[in-house]
Design goal:
About 25% of the residues are buried. The chain has a two-stranded antiparallel sheet with strand order 1-2. The chain is built from nine helices and two strands, in the order αββαααααααα. The protein is about 65% helix and about 0% strand. It is mainly α.
């Protein structure tokens, strides 16, 4: 990720200027996404992928967040203060696109998801999915409800894997995912059209941020 690369360079350069020339920045990297439902091919649209269903169920893959390097032996308060200050300076230099634009994108995405879930076509496909799941021996009104039933245990159980496999089969049989994403795209296009000016401004801000990161990386962050 370009932002992480630029941050690493800025922090390393700053630490060297602070007198810690042995600091290499090892361990400074993006943390992996948290363990949550977004790490799975499952959602209100059903379950995508029989292979994942057979191995993961409704539990996302285990992820371990990387740890930053430990402070050098005997570094003491000066090292700690330098790290804090260099992190602050890096954040200031990197900047970020306007928060209002990111909030708008998130709000519009949430609106599109809610609209799709209430759409009559999606409701009918979800009902067909439910009938299929009932025939397979699993009671659930929606894919989300089914997933929640099995996410309270620390590990995927055989019963959970069976439910996930049935979910994947019924998702395909009912064409729930195909309809869900087609309907979602339609609502999103409407929201994009109604908010075109604000979204264009956010897009330009993101592009400007990307160009700034590219310049920082190209300079080696030595300034």
């Amino acid at each position: 990720m370009k932002e992480i690369q630029a941050r690493n360079m800025l922090v390393v350069s700053c630490m060297h200027r602070a007198g810690f020339s042995a600091f290499t920045g090892d361990g400074l990297q993006a943390a992996q996404p948290p363990d949550n439902a977004t790490a799975l091919p499952a959602g209100p649209w059903g379950y995508l992928g029989a292979e994942a269903a057979a191995t993961l169920g409704f539990h996302p893959p285990k992820r371990t967040a990387p740890r930053p390097d430990a402070a050098p032996v005997g570094a003491g308060e000066a090292y700690d203060n330098a790290r804090v200050d260099c992190d602050r300076q890096a954040a200031e230099q990197l900047g970020s696109p306007p928060a209002a634009g990111a909030e708008l994108v998130g709000r519009l995405f949430d609106e599109s998801m809610k609209a799709a879930a209430k759409d009559a076509r999606v409701v009918a496909a979800t009902r067909a999915w439910t009938v299929c799941m009932t025939a397979a021996g699993f009671e659930a009104a929606t894919p989300d409800e089914l997933a929640r039933k099995y996410q309270t245990t620390p590990e995927a159980t055989p019963a959970e894997l069976a439910a996930a496999r049935a979910d994947a089969d019924c998702t395909a049989t009912s064409n729930l995912a195909g309809l869900w994403f087609a309907v979602l795209a339609g609502y999103q296009r409407q929201l994009i059209d109604r908010n075109a000016q604000a979204l264009t401004a956010q897009q330009e801000a993101v592009r400007a941020q990307d160009a700034r990161l590219t310049r920082l990386i190209g300079s080696g962050a030595t300034s």
